[in-house]
Amino acid sequence: MDFISEEFIAARTGEPLETRLKNSDSFRQQMKSLHEASKAFTRDSVKSDECWKAFDRLEEEWSKYNIRYGEESYRLGVEDGIQLVSETEIRTNGSVLDVTDMTHLVYVYDAIRRLNKLLLGEWEIHGRGGGVLEELDRVCDVIEHGVCAKIRLRGEDEMYECLSDILDDAGKAPEERAKLLTGQDKA
């Protein structure tokens, strides 16, 4: 897995894994069981047979907790791997859109940005929802969903920053930006 950067790994094992664990009923139930078992194991219980029963239960619940955490982590990793592989098979270099389609979208993006600046005086990338050209701004969502996995799976904040950096780079032609967005800039 040398093709996956450390930043990519850190992004996928941070918020996405925590969100996945938070949404997992079996993981939440296991956390609750672990908490109950740890509460039952107190300093006062150390001197009795109940102490050993409480300790055994705590150890068992801790093991189950670790198993659930590992399972969810593994599922997330497998899903990411499957997405990367299928994307690679679809478009050798990683996007579900080819460079031509992405180039068309980048041209439309540029036109929408110019219209917004002309009509509204500004281009607010993170506040697109309320503008006069609200419906046309949906092209941004299409671009976001069509970027290569190397960009899409970075984590939300880093992905948006990367998209903004690429899309708003007026020094590059739409074709160049499309290649960056589809991961085909190395081809």
What labels describe this entry?
mainly alpha, 0% strand, 187 residues
Low-confidence runs of at least 5 consecutive residues: none
What sequence of helices (H) and strands (E) makes up the elements? HHHHHHHHH
Total DSSP helices:
9
| Number of beta strands | 0
Strand content: under 5%
Main pleated-sheet profile: none
Structural class: mainly alpha
Helix content: over 70%
Radius of gyration: 24 Å
Termini Cα gap: 20 Å
Q: What's the overall average pLDDT, rounded? A: 76
Query: What is the overall silhouette?
Result: elongated
Describe the structure.
The structure is a single chain. Helices cover 70% and strands 0% of the residues. The longest helix has 42 residues, at 49-90. The protein has helices at residues 6-13, 15-23, 25-40, 49-90, 99-120, 138-146, 149-152, 156-167, 174-182. The protein contains nine helices and no strands. Helix 5 packs across helix 9 (174-182). The chain is mainly alpha-helical and 187 residues long. The mean pLDDT is 76. It starts with 5 loop residues before the first helix and ends in a 5-residue tail after the last helix.
Secondary-structure blueprint:
Blueprint: H1 6-13, H2 15-23, H3 25-40, H4 49-90, H5 99-120, H6 138-146, H7 149-152, H8 156-167, H9 174-182
Helix pairs in contact: 2-4, 3-4, 5-6, 5-9
How would you summarize what this structure contains?
With 187 residues, the protein is mainly α. The protein is built from 9 helices and no strands.
